[in-house]
TrEMBL record:
Signal peptide: none
Domain ISXO2-like transposase residue range list: 137-207
Transmembrane region(s): none
InterPro entries linked to this entry: IS1016-like_transposase, Tnp_ISXO2-like
Organism: Strongyloides papillosus (Intestinal threadworm)
Pfam families cross-referenced by the UniProt entry: DDE_Tnp_IS1595
Full protein name: DDE_Tnp_IS1595 domain-containing protein
Domain of life: Eukaryota
PANTHER family: DDE_TNP_IS1595 DOMAIN-CONTAINING PROTEIN, SI:DKEY-17M8.2
Length: 207
């Protein structure tokens, strides 16, 4: 079981900006429509510029589609950002991300700091509870950290147990754990998954 979508599912969005935009809008990550921030009137989406522009002739103000989202204040195209984030989630070496995404080392470093901060912020939300009667919740574990140079494939960091609802909302939780045993897993489930949920996990064989 994996939380990270396969390359077969996401790869087609890495090199097609229109497809990437459509995917992000359908997933609710980027807005499909917005009222004008200046006058509250209707707007039109200008895909080529990734911006909304007010339809009113007396206003015609424009504002970025990215504003207030994960993509705010970012310079890379949407598809390339997806590609970079996907490789990071798969714990690819930085050198591979630079090569495959064709992005400079400074830019990659900046994005990785941002992504790690997002994960850190999510881990602070310890009161997150997901699931409910009849709702499927997939639970998995991963190790958040970085590979140590010249030490093979060793990864240093913290183990994280996470869960995701198989619903349109796709609500999630992620918590760091000090022990990888059955008692710890059960405590995480009791704390973050509502009673009546249907739990899917392949972690039991390792606990």
């Amino acid at each position: 079981m994996q939380f990270v979508p396969s390359i077969r599912k996401l790869g087609k969005f890495f090199f097609d900006e229109d497809a990437a935009l459509g995917y992000l809008q359908n997933e609710g990550i980027l807005p499909k429509e917005k009222d004008c921030e200046a006058c509250g009137g209707p707007t039109v989406l200008i895909k080529a510029k990734l911006m909304f522009r007010c339809r009113k002739k007396s206003c015609r103000k424009g504002f970025s589609l990215r504003k207030g989202t994960f993509f705010a204040n970012q310079c890379l195209p949407l598809g390339k950002t997806l590609h970079l984030a996907h490789m990071w989630l798969l714990r690819s070496p930085v050198a591979s991300i630079i090569s495959q995404c064709e992005v400079g080392s400074a830019t990659v470093a900046s994005y990785l700091v941002y992504l790690r901060q997002l994960v850190s912020d999510a881990l602070d939300e310890e009161d997150c509870v997901i699931g409910g009667e009849g709702i499927v919740v997939e639970i998995d574990e991963t190790k958040m950290g970085k590979r140590k140079h010249n030490r093979g494939h060793r990864v240093e960091g913290v183990w994280v147990v996470g869960g995701v609802e198989i619903t349109e909302d796709r609500r999630v939780f992620a918590v760091p754990v000090e022990k990888r045993d059955a008692e710890t897993l059960l405590n995480v489930i009791k704390t973050h998954v509502r009673p009546g949920s249907i739990i899917h996990t392949d972690m039991w064989k390792g606990y």
